[in-house]
Amino acid sequence: MMNVFVYGSLLFPEIADGLCGQKLKSENATLNGYARFALKGADYPAIIKKDNFTVKGKVLRNLDENAIYLLTFYEGDEYGMVPVKVETNSGIINAVAFVWMAGNEFLEDFDWDEDKFESESLAFYRDEIVPATRAEYFSRN
What is the CATH number of the domain that holds 86? Predict the structure, then answer.
């Protein structure tokens, strides 16, 4: 079982639960030493290691191997799974985070807008991206 720190589209239970096919346990969390950025031409964010910055998000608790594989497939090759320590109300816990690996030239110089994603993209992700991702994943495995 593994904890996953999320900071973008996976903050929304409609997406995380939908991808994993189950109601996931989560709690608010903070990741120190990283910064979140919007990506050029995309409606999802990226985090990179950056001293003296923090990223607020959630930690998805005790995910099984299938859920980890599904989330890794969803995130794609531009992200690498990195072990991190996150702060929660219950203390500091070990987790993994999907960290941007594809190059800083793709990063905007501003943070991702969670409210804009919710109003402009969430329904599309819930209704189209999640089912298509699950279908493609299960057709390959």
Answer: 3.10.490.10
